[in-house]
C-alpha cells in the first residue's frame, strides 16, 4: 500500500525524466517517448488500486488539510490517467502533421515536448481531484491551464494554431484574474480557504448576502470559462479548430472535467447559506438554459467537424449545468446530482475521445476536417466509420449508449426538481443534436468518396478504439459500476439542499 500522493509524484517524475531523456536523445524520432509514457501511465493506473486513504483527522497545518483521497477523487484520478493515455495515442497518429508545422524541424524532430506536456496536465487534473482547499485547487488548475497554453500554440508554422494560442492565453488569463479575485473575497469574508471551514463561516455570517453573492459571481465567471458556459464560451470554436487535434480532445475532456469538479466543490459551501441558495440556483438555471440553446443551435450550420464538436462541447456543458441547477431538492431514486454529473463526464470522455481519435486518423488520409471530407468513409475504412457512428450516436443520445443514459440521468434530476423550462429547452436541443450529429453519419455511409484508397489503422489505435466503443455500449447498458463508484461516498453537492 502506498500514500495517495504517490500517484501525482510518479506522474510528475515521469514527465521530468522524459524531458531529460528527450534533451539528451540523438534520435529525431520521439515516438518512443509517447510509447514509454503510455506504458508507465498504465502501471500508475494499476497502482491506483493499491493506495491508502488520507488521514481522517490530520494535524493542523499538515499537507492533508489541503489534500483528500476519498473514493470519488480516486475515480477522477483514474479517469485523468485513462484520458492522458488515449491522448498520447492520438499524438502518435498526429506526429507527421505536427512536424510539418514546426519550422526548421526535420520529420519527427521538435515533437518530443508535445508527447510529454500531457503528463503535467494529467498531474494537475489528479491534484485538482484531491484538492479540498482553494489555494491547492488554484495551483492545480493553473498547472493544467499553463500546459494547455503551450500545447494549443505548439504548431508554430500554423497561423490557426498561433491564433488559437493567443486567444486561449488572453481569455484564460482574464478568467484566472476573476477566479483569484473571487478567492480573495471569500478569504476576506471568512478568513479561510478550506472548503469545509468556508461552509461553516458562511453559514454564520449575518447581513452579508450581497458580499457573498459577489464573491460567488467572481468565481463563476472564472470557472465559466473553463467549462465553456455561455456567455464565456467565445474562445471555444476558434481554439478547438486551430489547436492540434489531440490537444483539442484533451482540452474538451480535461478542461471540462476540471472545471466542473471545482465548480461542484466551490458551490457546496455557498448553497449552505439558506438566504441566497435560491438565487444561486436561479443563476445556474439561466446559465444552463443559455448554454443549451447556444451550443446546440450554433452547431447546426457547421461544416467543419472540429468546429461542430466545439459547439457540441458547449451544448454538453449546458446539460451538465442543467443537472447542477437541480441540487436544491433531495436526491432522486437514481442517485444524487454529484453522481449524475460524474457519470455524464465519464460518458462524455468515452464518446469525445473516440470522436477525436477517429478524426485524427481519418484526416491524415482525407486531407481536411470538413464533413464532406468524410464522404464514403465506410468504403475506405468500415472500422473507422463504425467507430465514428458509435461516437456520434452516443453524443446524440441514442439508446443503449453511455451518452443516452447520461442524458436520461440529467432529465431525471430535472423532473425531480420540477425544472420544466430546462426540460423543454433540453428536449428541443436534443432534437437539434440528432440532426447535426447524424449529418456526419450520412456523409460516411450515403455519399461517395472522392478517394477510394483504403485507410490503414495501427494496432495500438485499433485497441484503444475497440476499448472506447466497448465502454460506450457496456456502460450504456449497465451503468451501475460507474454510478456505484461515485456513490461510495457522499459526492460534492450530494447533500447541499
Describe the protein in words.
- It is a single chain.
- The chain starts with 5 loop residues before the first helix and ends in a 10-residue tail after the last helix.
- With 497 residues, it is mainly α.
- The chain is built from 20 helices and no strands.
- Residues 489-497 have low confidence and may be disordered.
- It has a domain at 312-497.
Number of strands: 0
Low-confidence sequence ranges: 489-497
Structural class: mainly alpha
In sequence order, what are the helices and strands, one letter per element? HHHHHHHHHHHHHHHHHHHH
Overall average residue pLDDT? 84
**Large-scale geometry:** globular
Helix amount:
over 70%
Residue fraction in strands: under 5%
Give the radius of gyration: 22 Å
Largest sheet: none
From the N-terminal CA to the C-terminal CA, the straight-line distance is: 37 Å
- How many helical stretches? 20
Give me a quick take on this structure.
The protein is mainly alpha-helical and 497 residues long. The chain has 20 helices and no strands.
Write the layout of secondary structure elements.
Blueprint (H helix, E strand, L loop, with lengths): L5 H19 L6 H17 L23 H23 L1 H6 L11 H19 L3 H19 L6 H32 L4 H10 L4 H19 L8 H7 L2 H27 L2 H26 L5 H20 L12 H30 L10 H4 L1 H15 L5 H15 L3 H27 L12 H19 L2 H8 L10
Helix pairs in contact: 1-2, 1-5, 2-3, 2-5, 3-5, 3-11, 3-14, 5-6, 5-11, 6-7, 6-11, 7-8, 7-9, 7-10, 8-11, 9-11, 10-11, 10-13, 11-13, 11-14, 12-13, 12-18, 13-14, 13-17, 13-18, 14-16, 14-17, 14-19, 14-20, 16-18, 16-19, 17-19
Amino acid at each position: 500500500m502506498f500514500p495517495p500522493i504517490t500517484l501525482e509524484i510518479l506522474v510528475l517524475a515521469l514527465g521530468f525524466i522524459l524531458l531529460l531523456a528527450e534533451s539528451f536523445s540523438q534520435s529525431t524520432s520521439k515516438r518512443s517517448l509517447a510509447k514509454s509514457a503510455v506504458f508507465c501511465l498504465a502501471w500508475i493506473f494499476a497502482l491506483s488500486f493499491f493506495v491508502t486513504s488520507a488521514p481522517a483527522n490530520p494535524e493542523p497545518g499538515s499537507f492533508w488539510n489541503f489534500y483528500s483521497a476519498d473514493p470519488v477523487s480516486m475515480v477522477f484520478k483514474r479517469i485523468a490517467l485513462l484520458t492522458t493515455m488515449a491522448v498520447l495515442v492520438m499524438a502518435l497518429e498526429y506526429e507527421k502533421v505536427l512536424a510539418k508545422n514546426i519550422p526548421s524541424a526535420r520529420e519527427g524532430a521538435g515533437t518530443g515536448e508535445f508527447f510529454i506536456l500531457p503528463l503535467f496536465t494529467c498531474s494537475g487534473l489528479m491534484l485538482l481531484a484531491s484538492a479540498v482547499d482553494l489555494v491547492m485547487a488554484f495551483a492545480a488548475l493553473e498547472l493544467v491551464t499553463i500546459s494547455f497554453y503551450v500545447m494549443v500554440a505548439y504548431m508554430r508554422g500554423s497561423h490557426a494554431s498561433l491564433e488559437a494560442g493567443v486567444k486561449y492565453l488572453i481569455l484564460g488569463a482574464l478568467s484566472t484574474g476573476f477566479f483569484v479575485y473571487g478567492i480573495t473575497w471569500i478569504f476576506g469574508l471568512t478568513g479561510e480557504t478550506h472548503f469545509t471551514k468556508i461552509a461553516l463561516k458562511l453559514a454564520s455570517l449575518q447581513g452579508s448576502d450581497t458580499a457573498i453573492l459577489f464573491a460567488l459571481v467572481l468565481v463563476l465567471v472564472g470557472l465559466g470559462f473553463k467549462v465553456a458556459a455561455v456567455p464565456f464560451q467565445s474562445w471555444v470554436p476558434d481554439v478547438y479548430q486551430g489547436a492540434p487535434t489531440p490537444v483539442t480532445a484533451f482540452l474538451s475532456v480535461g478542461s471540462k472535467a476540471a472545471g466542473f469538479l471545482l465548480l461542484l466543490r466551490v458551490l457546496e459551501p455557498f448553497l449552505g447559506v439558506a438566504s441566497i441558495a435560491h438565487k444561486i440556483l436561479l443563476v445556474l438555471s439561466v446559465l444552463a438554459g443559455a448554454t443549451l440553446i447556444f451550443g446546440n443551435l450554433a452547431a447546426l450550420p457547421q461544416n467543419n467537424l472540429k468546429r461542430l464538436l466545439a459547439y457540441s462541447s458547449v451544448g454538453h456543458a449546458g446539460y451538465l449545468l442543467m443537472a447542477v441547477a437541480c441540487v436544491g431538492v433531495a436526491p432522486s431514486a437514481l442517485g444524487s446530482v454529484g453522481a449524475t454529473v460524474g457519470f455524464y463526464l465519464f460518458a462524455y470522455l468515452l464518446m469525445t475521445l473516440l470522436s477525436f481519435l477517429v478524426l485524427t486518423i481519418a484526416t491524415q488520409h482525407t486531407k481536411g476536417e470538413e464533413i464532406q471530407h468524410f464522404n464514403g468513409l465506410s468504403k475506405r475504412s468500415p472500422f473507422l466509420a463504425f467507430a465514428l457512428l458509435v461516437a456520434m450516436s452516443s453524443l446524440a443520445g441514442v439508446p443503449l449508449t453511455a451518452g443516452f443514459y447520461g442524458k436520461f440521468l440529467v432529465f431525471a434530476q430535472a423532473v425531480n426538481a420540477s425544472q420544466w423550462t430546462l426540460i423543454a429547452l433540453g428536449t428541443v436541443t436534443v432534437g437539434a443534436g440528432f440532426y447535426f450529429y447524424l449529418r456526419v453519419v450520412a456523409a460516411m455511409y450515403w455519399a461517395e468518396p472522392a478517394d477510394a484508397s483504403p485507410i490503414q489503422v495501427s494496432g495500438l489505435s485499433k485497441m484503444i478504439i475497440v476499448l472506447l466503443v466497448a465502454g460506450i455500449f457496456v456502460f450504456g447498458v449497465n451503468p451501475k459500476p460507474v454510478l456505484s463508484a461515485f456513490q461510495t461516498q457522499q459526492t460534492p453537492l450530494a447533500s447541499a439542499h
